[in-house]
Design a protein that fits this description.
Elements lengths: L1 E5 L8 H10 L4 E7 L9 H14 L4 E6 L3 H9 L5 E5 L6 H11 L4 E6 L17 E5 L14 H14 L5 E5 L7 H7 L3 E4 L1 H4 L4 H9 L1
Parallel strand pairs: 1-2, 1-8, 2-3, 3-4, 4-5, 5-6, 6-7, 7-8
């Protein structure tokens, strides 16, 4: 299990110290939650770009960029300069299959590609694109806000996706995002999650290294 630390709730005044502590705790990725106030309520573009620029200069830990936006190409262009490991976009922000394939090919110029789906979106909608991408992100809360409680029904969706991946001999990571903590991480791991995005449960923890170790057990 890899841990992608969501920095959405990081206090700007303490950000440099927080990033340093997270690096010492051996997180695997810094998770960049980009919101445009259209696809979701909040707007984090300016803050996330500032954090991404800062992280590029101070750490070798890869960036995991999650675009919760309508104009996907615009934000790919903005964050590609940060050389992220992965850029993930929402299937719900696209109009048709042709657009999805075009976006996949566009992102591949800069990084690995992920497709995210909301809790109410059927997982079958991503099946035909799995051979073309590197990650499927299952949202385990409604996207757009931190600190939510994990929607337990999404665990069955993860199990279904994992089974399909194994039956079709695909090499692809399952990433889960939302409401993940040390209490529910085992259920997600058992369901087949490869990468857990953890936000407030990690950022608000007293001991980052202990918490990351608990998440990875």
């Amino acid at each position: 299990m890899e841990v992608s630390a969501s920095i959405l709730s990081v206090n700007e005044a303490e950000s440099a110290h927080t990033f340093y502590r997270l690096e010492l705790a051996h997180i695997d990725y810094f998770h960049i939650d980009v919101m445009d106030e259209k696809f979701v309520e909040n707007n984090t573009e300016e803050m996330m770009k500032m954090y991404a620029d800062h992280l590029k200069n101070i750490t070798n830990i890869p960036l995991d960029v999650h675009l919760m936006v309508e104009d996907i190409k615009k934000y790919v262009d903005i964050f590609s300069s940060n050389e992220p490991r992965n850029i993930t976009f929402h299937i719900e922000a696209t109009k048709n299959k042709e657009e999805i394939i075009e976006l996949i090919n566009y992102i591949k110029q800069y990084s690995k590609v992920g497709i995210a789906i909301k809790p109410d979106t059927d997982v079958e909608k991503v099946y035909e694109f799995l051979p073309l991408i590197h990650t499927v992100m299952i949202m385990t809360v409604e996207p757009g806000k931190g600190g939510q409680k994990l929607i337990t029904g999404t665990i069955e969706k993860i199990k279904k996706l994992k089974q399909y991946i194994e039956e079709n001999n695909l090499e692809i990571d399952i990433e889960a995002d939302g409401g993940i903590d040390t209490e529910n991480i085992k259920k997600l791991k058992d369901a087949g999650v490869d990468i857990a995005v953890v936000g407030t449960a990690l950022i608000n923890a007293k001991d980052y290294k202990y918490t990351v170790n608990q998440l990875k057990m």
